Amino acid sequence: MTTITVFKESGLIIGYHASGHSEYAASGEDIVCAAASIITQSTLLGLQEVAKVKITASKDDDKALLEVKLHEQNDQAQTILKTMELALKNLQEQYPKYVQVKEEAK
Hints:
The protein is an alpha+beta fold. It has one domain (2-105): Alpha-Beta Plaits (2-Layer Sandwich). It contains two helices and five strands, in the order ββαββαβ. A five-stranded mixed sheet has the order 3-4-2-1-5, covered by helices on one side.
């Protein structure tokens, strides 16, 4: 299962942690895992290239791990992060056995 934890502080998303393979299908054919990866990695690109906020990101493709922490905020960053959260929750609704989205207050 792919698990994404969205970290929040005072109502703002301050980071996220995605890990695990969904195991919906064989490697290279798993549309659920691909969707979660595209959503979380596109969010990282948006934070870096569009919102231009300071972040710390760590990624390990072998372990299917991506963690992103924001060190500053702006409206664009929150729009990008809220869109990610909505997309992931939609994916979870469609594939509840393969994707779990959790929220953690900091």
